[in-house]
Amino acid sequence: MTVFTAQGNAETVVFEAGDVGYVPQGSGHYIENTEDDVYRVLITFNSGHYQEIGLTEWLASNSSRLVATNFGIPRSLAERFPREGRFLVLPPDEVS
């Protein structure tokens, strides 16, 4: 799991069975299964109000200039990102 906080800081932690992770409210984050096995993840919230803003939605809602500046990438690359929010994007070779 990687958690993104202010000023471009990020921390990645590898979890094993029984581990507990914490994401501060409002922080960007993602969870990736890097193994072949299927895992179960229990997610809880400290509020009855849930709001999901996916990375592609966030990228699509900001200008290419802002995205390029925040990620330290060329603007030409940021302009190739999707311009609409998507929940899940699979590489073309994984789409059946």
Would you give an account of this structure?
The chain has 96 residues and is of the alpha+beta class. It folds into 2 domains: 48 residues, no CATH class; 45 residues, no CATH class. Helix content is 19%, strand content 9%. It has a 3-stranded antiparallel beta sheet, with no helix packed on it. The relative contact order is 0.13.
The termini sit apart by: 27 Å
Helical segment count: 3
Please write the string of helix (H) and strand (E) elements. Answer: EEEHHH
Low-confidence stretches: none
Whole-number count of domains: 2
Q: List how many beta strands DSSP finds.
A: 3
- Determine the strand fraction and express it as a percent band: 5-15%
Structural class: alpha+beta
Oligomeric state of the chains in view: single chain
| Overall radius of gyration | 16 Å
What is the helical fraction, as a range of percent? 10-25%
- Principal-axis shape: globular
What would the average pLDDT be, to the nearest integer?
81
Strand order of the largest sheet: 2-1-3
What is the secondary structure topology, with strand pairs?
Layout: E1 2-4, E2 10-12, E3 28-30, H1 55-60, H2 64-71, H3 75-78
Antiparallel strand pairs: 1-2, 1-3
Features:
96 residues, alpha+beta, 3 strands, 19% helix, 3 helices, globular, three-stranded antiparallel beta sheet, 2 domains
